[in-house]
Amino acid sequence: MIAYWAVPYLLVAAPPVILLLTVLIGGCTMTRTASDPMDNGARFYSDPNSQASGELIKELDRRSAREDLRRAVEEIQR
């Protein structure tokens, strides 16, 4: 048995669903150019020529130095 009462709801819901699916499928299949800025910022530690591990070491050293400085200031204030 066909539910005739559902037809108006389906007619209202169909265009947004079709539009959403179109946007999602179009976004997934979109090609990128060679100079895409998203590719330039993506760095992985496993890349052989990656500078990300060096930056991580610098950041950890900086945090360690900051913590040491904070401890020294607290000791002086006591």
Describe the protein's architecture and organization:
- 68% of the residues lie in helices and 0% in strands.
- The chain contains three helices and no strands.
- The chain has helices at 7-28, 37-41, 52-77.
- The model has no long low-confidence stretch (mean pLDDT 82).
Question: How does the SSE layout of this entry go?
Answer:
Layout (H helix, E strand, L loop, with lengths): L6 H22 L8 H5 L10 H26 L1
Name the poorly predicted regions.
none
By helix and strand content, what is the structural category? mainly alpha
The succession of helices and strands, N to C, reads HHH
Q: Helical region count?
A: 3
C-alpha Rg, in Å? 28 Å
Shape: elongated
Entry keywords:
78 residues, mainly alpha, elongated
Brief rundown of the structure:
The chain is an all-alpha fold and 78 residues long. It is built from three helices and no strands.
